[in-house]
Amino acid sequence: MENLQITAATPESALLDLPWRVPLEDWPNDVLAALPRGISRHVVRFVRLKGRMLAIKETRDHYAFREYELLRRLHKLEVPAVVPLAVVTGRVGDDGEPLEAAIITEHLAFSLPYRAVFSQALRPDTATRLIDALAVLLVRLHLVGFYWGDVSLSNTLFRRDADRFAAYLVDAETGDLHRELTSGQRAYDLDLARTNIIGELFDLEAGELLDEEVDAIGIGDALVERYTELWDALTKVESFSADERWRVDERIRRLNDLGFDVGELAIVTDIDGTTVQIQPKVVDAGHHSRRLLRLTGLDVQDNQARRLLNDLDSWRAATDRLNDSEQLVAHDWLLHSFEPTIAAVPRDLRKKLEPAQLFHEILDHRWYLSQRVHRDVPMPEAAISYVDQVLRHRPDEQAVLGLPPERAHEDEETLLG
Amino acid sequence: MATVTFDHATRLYPGTERPAVDQLNLHIEDGEFLVLVGPSGCGKSTSLRMLAGLEDVNGGRILIGDRDVTDVQPKDRDIAMVFQNYALYPHMSVADNMGFALKIAGTPKAEIRQRVEEAAKILDLTEYLDRKPKALSGGQRQRVAMGRAIVRQPQVFLMDEPLSNLDAKLRVQTRTQIASLQRRLGVTTVYVTHDQTEALTMGDRIAVLNKGVLQQVGTPREMYDQPANVFVAGFIGSPAMNIGTFQVKDGAALVGNAQVPLERTVVDALTEADGGKVTVGFRPESLDVVGSGTAGSFQVEVNLVEELGSDAFVYGSLKSDVGASDLSAGDSDQVIVRIDPREVPMKGDTINVAIKPGQSHVFSAATGNRLS
Ligand SMILES: Nc1ncnc2c1ncn2[C@@H]1O[C@H](COP(=O)(O)OP(=O)(O)OP(=O)(O)O)[C@@H](O)[C@H]1O
Ligand SMILES: Nc1ncnc2c1ncn2[C@@H]1O[C@H](COP(=O)(O)OP(=O)(O)O)[C@@H](O)[C@H]1O
Ligand SMILES: [Mg+2]
Ligand SMILES: [Mg+2]
């Protein structure tokens, strides 16, 4: 007997309309959205429901609940991860046989699986930027005590973040939240990440989806390097003599620059007061995005925020308002620069990229235009030129995620264990 | 290949009072298949993760061979965690899927091919080596994952409940495959499960843990025949052993209306703390149905009969004039008796049973330790 159960924080009756009596693998095309995915052992499919895009994964009850719970906790801890919506259990097929449970997550809008990013003709340092993003994600997860257990490119999603990428966790199945990680747990995660990334790049090589120039092992090693640098910058104890107090500010500025705020800094002075030791105790990612949010109400990724804040500074200088309050200037910048620029992009083209990403690209385009015409090009003019010369020819990243449709099927096969 | 030694190894999680693993002493022989078993939360996984280098060791040490690895990073311990994650790469051949970690390590091509072929032979994958994973069945894919670990030739394999995500049928199949594969490879293996049947069928030896404390290590037979304490007696065996605590009078335990004679040495070993009582255990198959009035026999009232074809079990309660008893098997609340499936009593009947000579287990009522 069927006894379908939907466990969700905010239950949605629309979920009941999905064909739960059919194995996910056989769901009809009219409910599915053919978006590219990473490699996975479980069956995973995307579904459009009431204007939203959902990701559904079939797995055993126990694992579905476990992953759901972990993703919820990660969400509360504000680390970048996909957001869980529900677990569906008690499924029975038309033949009366029980079917596996399903975990439903929100499809991460504008996200790019690594296969899509690598298969696009992007800048040559794409790999480096992906690795940087993954290193930041892994450090953030480790800082909150999350042991991943299966770090890989397939288990990560990437979003454009100004001229870089931001990485999100997509598969928490093997993870665990601890009070604090041991160095062994961190080292194991990192080593596994390296092995998996190299394996995934070998795979792209074998499928002729990767430029032959790309050095897979070098990229794997780069992750270890980047992670280690960042972890040290965020957690290392630093000692200096008492007359070098400026090094406290300097450390904080360095962390801000890396995108982190220092919530708590331990400062210890030795007994005779000649040396000082500092160590950050609480660091929070999102330094720039928090600042931008406070000033403008815009909620964007950290590097996008950094870019927007820089533009805000230039605008302030250009409009000769260095003596006005930052809050007030920010409000005017939003009204007279950011919003008109986005509005200059035709509505139907606007959904190709997030607004902050659009603004970032228009800024880049303006720089390039100004170089060519040897004068300062105003933003609205730059926006019009950008739409014509660039945006029109760009794939729609919210819907197609950068892959031509025939390519989207390459990853269709799921490797079930 | 190597031995593994836990030497007073202790793990105390930050913010907790009691160690999750408390002074574990365990020596695992070269090539041995050792199963760590116990109820949920007893510290099995923690022990395994200490060996893997994922958990700090707060006291004692861990050795692989003669090498103290207590402070060695996971990747430098020469161990392999099997089945943790086994994403197969669709564009790569089965051979490349198995050997890519060696390629990363810079192993010469010819040697990689040789090791992969050897592993494939053992895993019955030879004919698939040059195909893509798409061509493989679910079971074969799992064997490729196993192959990945094998080609690295680690000193020790670690497996933490590797079968838990399989359905019942595949679980029994894979269980046999893993056990026989391990014997052929001869690689020291530490295997964690909460399932005592899995432990009994797979392990050369079994280590039972409870509340972070090692209870007993031994071969499946030893654990079954000579449980060192009440916990092991009750945990190992399915259906579980009948265990109860009884008054001792004139050198015998008063089980129901019967006097079950105790060995001299057992009676001598009783202490004041035991309060004139012993704990007696006997397995369902250690009982004979006998005529009423047989010396040492007691009565069981039948509540339910479970017939399994070759076997039948009576679930019942001990009849006693001297008041209620706590005699029961596992968490069933009942006494379990294996009976001849051709002579099955009815619900409500009373049967007369006696413990077969030499098949009772006697434990101190105070400490739970084995006396007989
Ligand atoms: N919420 C989501 N938004 C966007 N993409 C998603 C989402 N959930 C899953 N995906 C895509 O589906 C793929 C497979 O999902 P997932 O990693 O959870 O499956 P899995 O079977 O558990 O994988 P593994 O074999 O690594 O255990 C991911 O690589 C990702 O590309
Ligand atoms: N990271 C942790 N922090 C605190 N306590 C833990 C942690 N991991 C496990 N424990 C506790 O340690 C004990 C042993 O856990 P575990 O080794 O996972 O047991 P098992 O594998 O036998 O189920 C349990 O009481 C569990 O709650
Ligand atoms: Mg995955
Ligand atoms: Mg997974």
TrEMBL record, chain A:
<dbReference type="Pfam" id="PF06293">
    <property type="entry name" value="Kdo"/>
</dbReference>
<dbReference type="InterPro" id="IPR011009">
    <property type="entry name" value="Kinase-like_dom_sf"/>
</dbReference>
<protein>
    <submittedName>
        <fullName>DUF4032 domain-containing protein</fullName>
    </submittedName>
</protein>
<feature type="domain" description="DUF4032">
    <location>
        <begin position="229"/>
        <end position="391"/>
    </location>
</feature>
<dbReference type="InterPro" id="IPR025111">
    <property type="entry name" value="DUF4032"/>
</dbReference>
<dbReference type="Pfam" id="PF13224">
    <property type="entry name" value="DUF4032"/>
</dbReference>
UniProtKB/TrEMBL annotation, chain B:
<keyword id="KW-0547">Nucleotide-binding</keyword>
<dbReference type="Pfam" id="PF17912">
    <property type="entry name" value="OB_MalK"/>
</dbReference>
<dbReference type="InterPro" id="IPR003593">
    <property type="entry name" value="AAA+_ATPase"/>
</dbReference>
<dbReference type="InterPro" id="IPR008995">
    <property type="entry name" value="Mo/tungstate-bd_C_term_dom"/>
</dbReference>
<dbReference type="InterPro" id="IPR017871">
    <property type="entry name" value="ABC_transporter-like_CS"/>
</dbReference>
<protein>
    <submittedName>
        <fullName>Sugar ABC transporter ATP-binding protein</fullName>
    </submittedName>
</protein>
<feature type="domain" description="ABC transporter">
    <location>
        <begin position="4"/>
        <end position="236"/>
    </location>
</feature>
<dbReference type="InterPro" id="IPR012340">
    <property type="entry name" value="NA-bd_OB-fold"/>
</dbReference>
<keyword id="KW-0067">ATP-binding</keyword>
<dbReference type="GO" id="GO:0008643">
    <property type="term" value="P:carbohydrate transport"/>
</dbReference>
<dbReference type="InterPro" id="IPR047641">
    <property type="entry name" value="ABC_transpr_MalK/UgpC-like"/>
</dbReference>
<dbReference type="InterPro" id="IPR040582">
    <property type="entry name" value="OB_MalK-like"/>
</dbReference>
<dbReference type="GO" id="GO:0140359">
    <property type="term" value="F:ABC-type transporter activity"/>
</dbReference>
<dbReference type="InterPro" id="IPR003439">
    <property type="entry name" value="ABC_transporter-like_ATP-bd"/>
</dbReference>
<dbReference type="GO" id="GO:0016887">
    <property type="term" value="F:ATP hydrolysis activity"/>
</dbReference>
<dbReference type="GO" id="GO:0055052">
    <property type="term" value="C:ATP-binding cassette (ABC) transporter complex, substrate-binding subunit-containing"/>
</dbReference>
<dbReference type="Pfam" id="PF00005">
    <property type="entry name" value="ABC_tran"/>
</dbReference>
<keyword id="KW-0813">Transport</keyword>
<dbReference type="GO" id="GO:0005524">
    <property type="term" value="F:ATP binding"/>
</dbReference>
<dbReference type="InterPro" id="IPR027417">
    <property type="entry name" value="P-loop_NTPase"/>
</dbReference>
<dbReference type="InterPro" id="IPR015855">
    <property type="entry name" value="ABC_transpr_MalK-like"/>
</dbReference>
